[in-house]
UniProtKB/TrEMBL annotation:
Lineage: Bacteria, Bacillati, Actinomycetota, Actinomycetes, Mycobacteriales
Record-annotated Acyl-CoA dehydrogenase/oxidase N-terminal domain positions: 14-100
Ribosomal protein keyword on record: no
CDD domains: ACAD
MF (Gene Ontology): acyl-CoA dehydrogenase activity; flavin adenine dinucleotide binding
Similarity comment: Belongs to the acyl-CoA dehydrogenase family.
UniProt name for this protein: Alkylation response protein AidB-like acyl-CoA dehydrogenase
Top-level taxonomic group: Bacteria
SUPFAM superfamilies, alphabetized: Acyl-CoA dehydrogenase C-terminal domain-like, Acyl-CoA dehydrogenase NM domain-like
Length: 373
């Protein structure tokens, strides 16, 4: 990797980004091993913290140095191209840590910011089995109790749950979605069902809550405009990084394998198919960059554009990875090949909220002028 960037980088961003670039090369070499073992790369996540990435992503208004959206997008894409499980865990960790620092800024925000900067681990526990993609609209009700409220229910796909010191949790309080920081204790347990197709090293577990106390002092406001949108900005980048890695693996295979005395890359059908996916991948990158530019300039269209970028990135990543399997043939289907891992990982992006189906409905209704019923 290089520390020469194709976009304006502030002086305080340059060193953390250069460190991420160097670490990504190390992560790439071990991605398959952690995926095979379905093991969280704890040491790699610690290395990102030691490289100053957590301080960099935390907005300056709550104690960090505040990456631009352009720099943040570059970080997640770079990590995802090397090891998308690391990129996913870190994005969710940053999303929870930054959110808690911001939404509790008037009460416990400085505490959560200090814990985040000290290297404590955070995880998002928002998605419910019954609420589908609407992770900001919980269905589970928090009951009044000593010290605040209690929650009995479950949250699913909590990336890095087993190493989390703090969880970002939501529930209905007086009929309204309400957000809390939670310290996992013996009322929070992991349901051991982790056996996924892709992104295995995220270990995004199902958590069970049994009268878990949601402390009043850890209650925060609803995330809103002006907050750093870590998750919406990060999810498209995960798929784009996977797509970039899948295309690189495809190209390497096509150049190195021969058929009828010439490299596979000389086959016309391969050239045509690669032209199609590379062009659409470039378009997805451009749409994503547009979304980041809008966000850096605080333009309201940023979030809807991020949704469109996620939709396109998710679809293109799968298409690139599927073409990789076709070009790779039987050897690309082998377990030792990175091609099959890219395909498995690419599929996961489509399922992350909002899924491609939900986004298609949102985008389609907006284009057609149909109000959501």
């Amino acid at each position: 990797m290089t520390d020469s960037f194709e976009f304006p980088v502030r002086a305080d961003e340059r060193e953390p980004l250069a460190r991420v670039a160097r670490l990504a090369d190390e992560f790439r070499a071990t991605a398959a091993e952690f995926d095979e073992r379905a093991e969280i790369p704890v040491a790699h996540l610690a290395a990102l913290h030691e490289a100053g990435l957590d301080r960099a992503v935390l907005p300056d208004r709550v104690g960090g140095t505040g990456l631009s959206y352009r720099a943040f997008g570059w970080v997640v894409r770079t990590l995802a191209a090397a090891d998308p499980s690391i990129a996913t865990i870190w994005t969710m960790h940053a999303g929870a840590g930054v959110a808690l620092a911001e939404i509790t800024a008037e009460t416990m925000g400085s505490f959560f910011a200090e814990e985040f900067l000290a290297g404590k681990r955070f995880a998002n526990a928002l998605s419910e089995p019954a609420s589908g993609n609407r992770f900001l609209q919980p269905q589970q009700v928090a009951e009044p109790g000593a010290g605040g409220w209690t929650l009995t229910g479950a949250k699913r796909f909590v990336s890095g749950a087993e190493i989390a010191d703090y969880l970002l949790v939501n529930a209905l309080v007086d009929g309204q979605p309400t957000f809390f920081g939670v310290v996992p204790d013996d009322t929070v347990s992991v349901i051991p069902i982790w056996d996924t197709l892709g992104l295995r090293a995220t270990r995004s577990q199902l958590l069970s809550f049994d009268r878990t106390v949601l402390r009043a002092e850890y209650r925060g406001r609803r995330p809103g405009p002006g907050d750093f949108a870590v998750i919406p900005a990060g999810l498209p980048a995960i798929s784009l990084g996977i797509a970039d890695a899948a295309l690189d693996a495809l190209v390497e295979h096509a150049r190195s394998r021969e058929i009828l005395g010439a490299p596979l890359a000389h086959q016309q059908w391969v050239q045509y198919e690669v032209a199609d996916v590379q062009t659409r991948l470039a378009a997805a990158h451009a749409l994503y960059e547009r979304a980041l530019d809008l966000a850096d300039n605080a333009i309201p269209a940023a979030l809807p554009t991020m949704g469109r970028a996620k939709y396109l990135a998710n679809k293109v990543a799968v298409d690139v990875a599927q073409l990789g399997v076709r070009v790779g043939g039987a050897s690309g289907y082998l377990k030792r090949s990175p091609i099959q891992r890219h395909l498995r990982d690419a599929e996961a992006g489509q399922l992350m909220a909002y899924s491609t189906e939900v986004l298609a409905g949102v985008i389609g209704r907006e284009v057609l002028g149909v109000e959501e019923g």
